[in-house]
Structures are given as structure tokens and as C-alpha cells.
Amino acid sequence: MKALFVMSLVVLLFxxxxxxxxxKKTNDEKVVVMTQNSKYQNEIKALIEELDxxxxxxxxxxxxxxxxxxxxxVSERLKxxxxxxxxxxxxxxxxxxxPYTVAFQxxxxxxxxxxxxxxxxxxxxxxxxxxxEMGMDVYSIERHLLLHDKAKLLLDSLGYKAHLFYGDGxxxxxxxxxxxxxxxxxAIGEVPSQLLEQMKIGGLLVAPIGDDYSQEMxxxxxxxxxxxxxxxxxxxxxxxxxxxxxx
Length: 247
Ligand code: SAH
Description:
- 35% of the residues lie in helices and 24% in strands.
- The chain is an alpha/beta fold.
- α3 runs antiparallel to α4 (59-67).
- The termini are far apart.
């Protein structure tokens, strides 16, 4: 009996210490989300099969895409298309990325349990939710106040405890740095040195680098304080990263 009590105490303490964004969800919240997902279960299954067949290596990414309710991140009229493998419009002429792109970028981050991740371009909050669902410590910046406010409300209501900031992503978050991983979800001409400096040594940054029409998915690894290695991973098209705050 005493042994059982001690074991329960150990399990409880373990859960408290290793609580991630995701595990702060209450059971009630989980039930609501799962019930909503069941309405789309055929569409979700088809999407997961498609992503699986496209060679996403990190199966935790696929599991997160299966769990996070993408329909909650798009407007009412687009909900029926939420599980299509395509980008969809959100407010302020921005887009929620295509699920494959989300999976591909997340895969490239080579996430370790509990990584501290900075995302530039919160948008709908979907990518931030995926990272939270995977147990990461998520920081995300958005330059449009409306998108920032909506994402904050939505992620809170789904039980995801991401740290969301309204600001200019070009500056990063110097007060919260360093980060294990940095993910840029808008097209950028070149990664500013401020962002490279906010990466831990051994950390990775994933960004679509190019002009407004086409970008090369690039991984920048910080090997030492002043040593970086770049690899390229195919062509993508993102909405542009814009300097300064939006209205
Ligand atoms: N990750 C988002 C989609 C990104 S779309 C999602 O999961 O829904 C790109 C986002 O980057 C847009 O919301 C855009 O407003 C934002 N953005 C563009 N320039 C930015 C900047 N300088 N700082 C922060 N966010 C920026």
C-alpha cells in the first residue's frame, strides 16, 4: 500500500516537472477537440495518408497533424476545406500554410523533446499549435495585431500554452533568446544577423529564402559562435516577410 502511494507520488511529481504546452490541456478540453475532429475523420485520414506517402520522417509531426483541429484555424466558409493539402486564406491577406509545408518545415527542425522554438509569423497559430502538441516550448511573433489577438484566443481555448508576441520578427526576441530552433514561416530575402545570434550553438534555423515569388527552403545550422552551415531543400512559395508592424 505504502509502495503504491510512493509510486503515485513519483508519477505525479514527474508529470508536474515535465509538463509541456500540450500536457496542460484538461481532459474536458481534449474531449471537445476530439469530438470536433471526428466530424472530419475521413478528410483527416486522407491527409495523413498523403503526408505519410510524401516521406515526412518525423512521425511525431504526422501524429500532431492528426490531432490538431485545423478546421478551428480557418474561417467558417473554409472549414469544409480545412484538411485539403493546400494553403488557405486567413485575415489580413495572409495564409495558413499547406499541411505538407508545415510537416516539411517541422521535420527539418529535427526537434528534441522540450526544445525552445521561436516561430516568426504566427498567422493563424496553427504551426504554433503543432509545435505545442509535440511538446515544445513555443515562442511566436506576428506583425498584425488582429492575427496575434485571434491566435492567442484560439490557442488558449484549445489549451495550448504558446508564448505569443505582437512585434517585428526581424528583431526576434532578444530577451527570450537563445533558442534551440528558429522557424521562419514567411518568405525572407536573407536571414538577419540578429536572428542568427539568437540561436544556440548546435541549433537550427529553417527559413524559405528567396524573392517574393519563389524561395529555397534553407536549413542554417549554428556549428560554433561564428560558424554556420547551410543546406537547401527544394522550392516553395510563401507570403513575404515584411519589416515593421502591420496595423
Ligand atoms: N505560421 C502561420 C502561417 C504563416 S503566414 C500559420 O501557421 O498559420 C506568414 C505570417 O507571417 C503572416 O501572418 C504575416 O503577417 C507574418 N509576418 C510577415 N512579416 C512579419 C514580420 N516581420 N514579423 C512577424 N510576422 C510577420
